[in-house]
Amino acid sequence: MIESGAVPEKEWIVGVGSALVDILSHEDDQFLEAVGAIKGGMQLVDMACIEKAMARTLAAPIIVPGGSACNTMVGVGKLGGKARFIGKCGQGQMGRRLSDGLRQSNVEPLLTLSASPTGRVFSIITPDAQRSFLTYLGAAAEAQPDEILADYFNGAAIVHLEGYLLHSEALIMTALQKAKAAGAAISIDLASFTVVESARELLEHVVDSYADIVLANEEEARAYTGTIDELKALDILSRKAKVAVVKVGDRGSYIRHAGKTTRVAPVGDGMAVDTTGAGDLWAAGFLYGLVSGMDIADSGALGSACGYEVCQVVGATIPDAGWERIRQRLRLQSSDS
Asked: How far apart are CA 49 and CA 192, in angstroms?
């Protein structure tokens, strides 16, 4: 496990997850009811379900690269870190767009290709900036354990896995075993309270046996620990992993490491255009900070800045101006230390 404030010999952050495209649409709660989406949750559906939901939209949805671990690796790459992403996508235009986008963001794409369509997520954004997902995995669901090669983890300081991989036990276990064999620290993002509820047994095994870093928002922490008290949930998670994080939206986040709880203040005024990618980009800043030798507090502050900036736009892509503001914060942090 990376010690807070120490620069590790290994520099790579490797993400493993579903290679997806996000389809974003602003709708009301009645729309959620009409399409059968669970508010704040994620459901696996077929392509027909997404097409029917899209047909109900009043305006053309926005289409952007997506996928939880993929978003995190893009953030690491944009910050100047060494990032790789492991996933599976289609051979068509959507897959090419994803691969090209990763390279442009300084991320090494390790993508297996399939004849099936690239997976996609219909992200429904309600007026409270909450996101509800209908997910068609497509090619991502065809990823096979033998496609995850041990060489992919060479030089990895941290391997970051999204909780959505819990829907494929053989795949996530192979990734975990090869990452551990490479000597990497393991970071797990719990992904969604619906994932926690549907894959509890496997998740508990993964967290207990492999996780060094566990990242959760308040709903995921509640679903996993059974308590609405965020600090109690943080304490429970910290007994299982060396670093436990509970993000509490516009109130900031809490991190527990080595018996100490650190509160990370939110950045900005708490207003959000869209919270798509907020947790993913928070993870990018935090993990990049740890690998760069920052302490827990500064790593959390960087995560908070990345999470704030992505909430100011629709989708999980921070514009250049946002990245410049984040880099300015980094420069200020560096000059103060």
From this structure: 20
- Residue 319's SS3 state is coil
Which tokens is 212 given?
A: 């060094």
Pairing assessment for the beta strands 243-247 and 253-257 based on DSSP bridges: antiparallel
User: What is the residue extent of each domain of the chain?
Assistant: 12-19+67-115+142-336
**What CATH class is the domain 12-19+67-115+142-336?**
alpha beta
SS3 63: strand
DSSP state of 41: -
> E strand or H helix at 4, and its extent?
none
Q: Which two tokens stand for residue 222?
A: 């509640």
pLDDT, tens digit, for every residue of 88-127? 999 988 899 889 989 999 999 999 999 999 999 999 999 9
> In angstroms, rounded to a whole number, what is the distance separating the alpha carbons of residues 304 and 295?
14
CA distance 180 to 186: 7
- CA 264 to chain centroid: 18
Q: What would the pLDDT profile of 50-92 be if each residue is shown by its tens digit?
A: 999 999 998 888 887 789 999 999 999 999 999 999 999 999 8
Going by C-alpha positions, the residue among 305, 266, 256 that lies closest to residue 282 is: 305
Per the rule left: phi > 0, alpha: psi between -120 and 50, beta: everything else, 267 is beta
Report the distance separating Cα 85 and Cα 83, nearest Å.
7
H and E: helices and strands count for the chain: 12, 14
Rounded distance between C-alpha atoms, residue 147 and residue 132, angstroms? 30
- Phi/psi class of residue 334: alpha, beta or left (left: φ > 0; alpha: ψ in -120 to 50)? alpha
Residue 77 burial (10 A CB sphere; 0-12, 13-18, 19+): buried
Q: Cβ(24)–Cβ(276) under 8 Å?
A: yes
The answer to whether residues 161 and 69 touch, using CB atoms and an 8 Å cutoff, is: yes
Q: How far apart (Å, rounded) are the C-alpha atoms in residues 236 and 322?
A: 35
